[in-house]
């Protein structure tokens, strides 16, 4: 079985609103894809994603595995700059270990 | 204009101090499943409210708490409760309160600002009126098959999984209605999980104060210094909610952070 990966550029991510992004990620993950967002999701968006994922958990879809680099302080420390977020189906993706600037994950067939 | 505003601010403060009781702060106890949230909530209630009362039962099966439970009217008065600390804490492994070199761990009792027995700990004499909210464990995945390993029947496991997903949503919803967060982490596990990072990020974005409790330091594999290293910008207090180790320092940190 092949596993599809969607690598989304920062421009594309920034062109979407929060809810649009979350729906986009969740639809991709529910289809079995690994979604990598350049620029990433904010903490609030990630929390919303967890909430929506929980609403859709059933026997086939057991939730999501999510990993990301923590955000960096941006311009004059006024805005936080998100960096990268990887989201996959919990059955397929397993984060082994992560640090501030690296993520080690295993992606396997269901 | 500014002067008038400042005067009205002082007046409001004086009126509140004289005629109105300070409202309780709502403190949510958050963390991943099996971090010890219910054990900690029960200990806070036993120490400051009712020795016989439990808000829930702790279990080795994940997602034992699937509904948020609030217990109001808790008054932390460090001075008054000092004797009680000594009675209820260290019941399994008596240790001196402030020994920064214990186990060579700099995060254990090593921060004098959190230790009520030190000079700066005098601030710990202040009182804090609070409501505690024991929340269901936050998770990004819930698979009923995981519960089968604990001897649950398939129907029970499916029901538990369904309730657990509702519990996660409820815990997230509660974030809108709380004034502070105790983020409980299992000190025997890797602290740098996305769930922990997301909770902290959300609290920072909302400007809600956080105290991180590195729980289960009674276990030999506990490494609270890893938590301190992962989240250096936050208060990290190593505790054992089960045995009561280091709880005076934890209560002092709560009063200072949430007052």
Q: Based on the structure given, which CATH architecture of chain A is correct?
A: 2-Layer Sandwich
- Low-confidence runs of chain B (pLDDT<50, min 5 residues)? 90-124
Oligomer: heterodimer
Largest interface: A-B, 28 and 27 residues
User: Can you tell me the number of structural domains of chain B?
Assistant: 1
Report the average pLDDT across residues of chain A: 91
Radius of gyration of chain A: 14 Å
Q: Percentage of helical residues of chain B? A: 25-40%
Average residue pLDDT of chain B: 82
Number of strands of chain A: 8
Note the beta-strand portion of chain A: 25-35%
Secondary structure layout:
The complex is a heterodimer of chains A (110) and B (259).
Chain A: E1 5-8, H1 10-14, H2 18-30, E2 34-38, H3 43-55, E3 64-68, E4 72-73, E5 80-81, E6 84-89, E7 93-98, E8 103-107
Parallel strand pairs in A: 1-2
Antiparallel strand pairs in A: 2-6, 3-6, 4-5, 7-8
Chain B: H1 2-19, E1 25-30, H2 37-48, E2 69-77, H3 82-88, E3 127-134, H4 144-148, H5 154-174, E4 180-186, H6 194-206, E5 210-215, H7 224-230, E6 235-238, H8 247-258
Parallel strand pairs in B: 1-3, 1-4, 4-5, 5-6
Antiparallel strand pairs in B: 2-3
Short description:
Chain A has helices at 10-14, 18-30, 43-55, and strands spanning 5-8, 34-38, 64-68, 72-73, 80-81, 84-89, 93-98, 103-107.
């Amino acid at each position: 079985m092949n596993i599809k990966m969607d690598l989304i550029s920062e421009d594309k991510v920034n062109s979407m609103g929060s809810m649009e992004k979350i729906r986009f990620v969740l639809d991709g993950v529910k289809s079995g894809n690994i979604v990598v967002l350049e620029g990433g999701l904010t903490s609030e968006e990630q929390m919303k994603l967890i909430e929506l994922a929980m609403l859709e958990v059933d026997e086939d879809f057991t939730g999501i595995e999510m990993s990301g680099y923590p955000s960096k302080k941006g311009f004059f420390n006024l805005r936080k700059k998100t960096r990268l977020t990887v989201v996959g189906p919990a059955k397929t993706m397993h984060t082994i270990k992560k640090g501030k600037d690296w993520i080690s994950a295993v992606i396997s067939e269901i | 204009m500014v002067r008038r505003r400042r005067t009205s601010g002082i007046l409001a403060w004086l009126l509140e101090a004289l005629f109105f009781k300070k409202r309780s702060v709502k403190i949510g106890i958050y963390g991943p499943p099996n971090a010890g949230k219910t054990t900690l909530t029960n200990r806070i209630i036993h120490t400051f409210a009712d020795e016989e009362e439990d808000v829930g039962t702790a279990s080795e099966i994940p997602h034992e708490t699937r509904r948020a439970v609030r217990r109001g009217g808790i008054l932390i008065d460090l001075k008054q409760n000092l004797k009680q600390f000594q009675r209820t804490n260290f019941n399994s492994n008596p240790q001196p309160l402030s020994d920064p070199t214990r186990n060579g761990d700099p995060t254990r009792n090593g921060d004098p600002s959190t230790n009520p027995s030190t000079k700066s700990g005098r601030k710990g004499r202040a009182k804090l009126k609070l409501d505690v909210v024991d929340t269901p464990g936050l998770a990004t995945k819930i698979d009923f098959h995981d519960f089968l390993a604990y001897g649950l029947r398939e129907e029970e496991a499916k029901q538990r999984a369904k309730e657990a997903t509702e519990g996660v949503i409820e815990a997230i919803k509660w974030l809108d209605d709380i004034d502070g967060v105790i983020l409980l982490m299992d000190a025997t596990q890797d602290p740098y999980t996305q769930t922990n990072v997301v909770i902290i990020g959300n609290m920072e974005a909302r400007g809600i104060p956080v105290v991180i409790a590195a729980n289960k330091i009674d276990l030999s594999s506990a490494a609270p210094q890893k938590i301190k290293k992962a989240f250096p910008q936050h208060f990290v207090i190593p505790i054992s909610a089960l045995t009561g180790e280091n709880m005076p320092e934890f209560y002092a940190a709560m009063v200072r952070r949430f007052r």
